[in-house]
Design goal:
The structure is a single chain. The protein has two domains: 3-304 and 570-634, no CATH class; 315-508, no CATH class. α2 (43-52) packs parallel to α4 (81-88), α10 (347-359) crosses α11 and α10 runs parallel beside α14 (407-423). It has helices spanning 3-19, 43-52, 69-73, 81-88, 115-119, 147-156, 165-186, 247-250, 315-333, 347-359, 362-369, 379-382, 393-401, 407-423, 437-446, 459-482, 488-491, 501-525, 529-545, 564-569, 608-611; strands spanning 23-26, 29-34, 61-66, 196-200, 209-219, 222-232, 253-261, 276-283, 298-304, 554-558, 574-583, 586-595, 624-634. It is an alpha+beta fold and 635 residues long. The chain has a 13-stranded mixed beta sheet. The two termini are 20 Å apart. 41% of the residues are buried.
Length: 635
């Protein structure tokens, strides 16, 4: 290899590390610097390097690909951080954090190379790059962004980043020279400051190699390079074809993983349900690709919730919460957005009717609102959360006033109510621990000392928001306790209503999310009561110290038997197997991955129109096979 080319490569690397910035290597190639703990500005590159390769962000790296720096600057950045974090935590086995991750050297490993390999000549493949590769698949239902959405993003922002396999091998050879010189001059203690080096390939070689990379490592104090190579099949995998692993693989330490995208597999009235829901299973030993998880596999549910789906059993809570959110916002901004519709009956007439009923006693109001149907089953069993029966005056008043469509109607209705209270025409019941302004006014009216507040400005809206917050708090408590999901002690932190209206609203939104999650788990998975209760308590504990994050994914351990129906009716969107084979003290890994969505978008395919199918049935679904092997070469 030309010495001037090596000198240019080394100088480029040094400049990048010194300035911590990306640089054009030549007129058609970019070396992009990715600092520790950060993603690059290129969304397509991040999908390939971070989401699929699952490269740890605790090391800096340099990525080589075809293009120019303007390709980075002109590419719209897409936030995929949640997808990345989900993938990094999706597979917890005793052998590996994720079978899609680049394997780490095991303590006590030693090199297995001879003297010739140690010299690392520069005219071909000194790095044992006869490797296959796998990475994490792309269809990640436990991520908030759906696979279809991410695929659209990638297609929209596509750039042909891959370079030829021959040139990639040359670049890695020059990196080995840089690594050797750096180690000679600075010793092994400086190895952590040398970045990983990855090259995106175009897949044009016979093995369809799409990623090559090297990572500096220390094995028993000896420096070396972890060499990785990733291949991706060009053709769809026939699911009915039996693919068995060879005997040497079976004798290795194995770990397997399968993911089922529950919501995306639905084709009936549940299709398109808001939120995401996946079932992950982990087990050891596998004889063939797509082997069904055994009964002893560890099962985990990965789910995120999005409130507001009309098919959710908790939708009635969401409707009132939406109205309350509008009123609380009005108190803060002073701008009132009336959501209520103008009805046939004027609001003041509905208020008068309520007062007339209360004059006959609170029981009359309860009887009029009672449902004649008798249901002996728990709300959690039939997915129906019925209205609680212990409504007090402010609860009834909220139900009437939320239909208000004008500020003047609200003021006149409150004036009428205050007149009735101050005159003693009605003495309604309020709960002892109801601390709203209206409840206190009612108590004062009992003693004939009620001071009517001036109904000006935002005061009427604030009175209404307080009543709505109090009612919804009690509604949520009733929903959780009546279904035996949890105890009041678990709810205590989120039902403490001594804060501002905004803080109270945030607490109620958290309770709504928990209720939405339990409803979704019951609706799609029919999990046992114990698992639903455990999930509810886990979320309540999380929300005690964490704010609501729309893209946060919760993980719940469940009995494998409870998700048996998912394995029977759905095909896995991801299936992986990892084989760790020890030769002496060195462990080499081989990873197989099947995914239903094309995982690497940086490689242009001639048959992309054919492989972009979204049909998830077992008979017509596209499959892509990825194989990954890692070797450690010591100096």
């Amino acid at each position: 290899m030309n010495p001037s080319a090596i000198s240019k490569f080394v100088d480029t690397f040094r400049n990048i590390l010194q300035n911590k910035t990306s640089q054009e290597y030549d007129s058609s190639m970019v070396f992009e610097y990715r600092s520790k703990g950060k993603l690059s500005s290129n969304s397509v590159l991040d999908h390939a390097m971070t989401y699929f390769l699952d490269i740890s962000s605790d090391r800096s790296s340099i990525v080589a690909y075809k293009g120019r720096l303007c390709d980075i600057n002109n590419t719209k950045s897409v936030d995929i951080s949640q997808n990345v974090s989900i993938n990094q935590n999706s597979y917890k086995s005793s052998q590996s954090h994720s079978i899609a991750s680049t394997p780490k050297s095991k303590k006590g490993s030693t090199g297995s190379t001879n003297g010739k390999e140690t010299s690392l000549d520069l005219d071909g493949s000194p790095l044992k790059l006869q490797a296959y590769a796998d990475l994490s698949a792309f269809d990640s239902p436990s991520s908030v962004c759906s696979p279809k959405y991410i695929k659209r993003v990638c297609e929209k922002e596509r750039h042909d980043f891959g370079i030829s396999n021959q040139k990639a091998r040359g670049l890695l050879s020059m990196f080995s020279t840089y690594f050797t010189n750096n180690r000679t001059n600075n010793g092994n203690e400086n190895i952590d400051h040398i970045p990983d080096f990855w090259v995106l390939c175009d897949g044009s070689d016979i093995k369809s190699t799409i990623i090559r990379g090297v990572q500096p490592v220390l094995v028993d104090g000896r420096p070396g390079l972890r060499i990785s190579s990733v291949t991706q099949s060009d053709k769809n995998i026939d699911l009915k074809r039996e693919i068995r692993f060879d005997g040497s693989s079976i004798l290795s330490d194995t770990s397997c993983y399968a993911r089922y995208n529950v919501i995306d597999s639905m084709r009936d009235d549940k299709a398109g349900y808001q939120g995401s829901l996946a079932v992950d299973l982990e087990w050891a030993r596998s004889m063939s690709l797509l082997q069904k998880p055994p009964s002893h596999a560890a099962a985990f549910v990965k789910a995120s919730v999005t409130a507001g789906d009309m098919r959710s059993p908790a939708y009635s809570f969401y409707q009132e919460l939406t109205l309350l959110t509008s009123f609380v916002s009005s108190v803060t901004t002073g701008d009132v957005n009336w959501i209520g519709e103008v009805g046939d009956v004027p609001l003041i007439e509905s208020v008068k009717k309520l007062i007339e009923q209360l004059q006959q006693g609170d029981r009359v109001v309860h009887e009029e609102n009672e449902d004649d149907s008798v249901d002996l089953m728990s709300p959690l069993e039939n997915l129906v959360f019925k209205e609680r029966q212990d409504l007090d005056f402010t609860d009834h008043l909220w139900k009437v006033l939320i239909s208000c469509s004008a500020y003047s109607d609200l003021v006149s209705s409150l004036q009428y109510i205050f007149n009735c209270l101050s005159s003693g025409r009605v003495q309604p019941m309020v709960h002892n621990n109801n601390h709203t302004t209206m409840a206190q006014l009612v108590r004062d009216s009992y003693m004939g000392r009620m001071m009517v507040p001036p109904l000006k400005g935002i005061t009427p809206i604030k009175l209404l928001a307080e009543m709505g917050g109090e009612k919804l708090k009690r509604d949520y408590i009733n929903a959780f306790l009546s279904s035996d999901m949890t105890t009041l002690s678990h709810l205590a932190h989120l039902v403490s209503m001594s804060k501002s209206l905004e803080e109270n609203l945030e607490q109620l939104e958290k309770l709504q999310n928990v209720l939405e999650m339990v409803s979704m788990l019951k609706l799609f998975l029919s999990l046992p009561h114990s698992s639903l209760g455990s999930a509810a308590r886990q979320m309540l504990k999380h929300y005690e110290t964490n704010a609501i994050e729309e893209k946060h994914v919760f993980e719940f351990g469940v009995p494998t038997s409870s998700v048996q129906s998912v394995m029977d009716t759905c095909s896995p969107c991801e299936w992986k197997a990892r084989f760790d084979h020890t030769v002496g003290s060195v462990t080499e890994s081989t990873i197989y991955c099947l995914t239903s969505t094309q995982p690497f978008r940086h490689v242009k395919r001639g048959n992309e129109a054919d492989v972009s199918q979204t049909d998830t049935s077992m008979e017509t679904e596209s499959r892509f096979l990825l194989v990954k092997q890692d070797f450690v070469t010591l100096f």
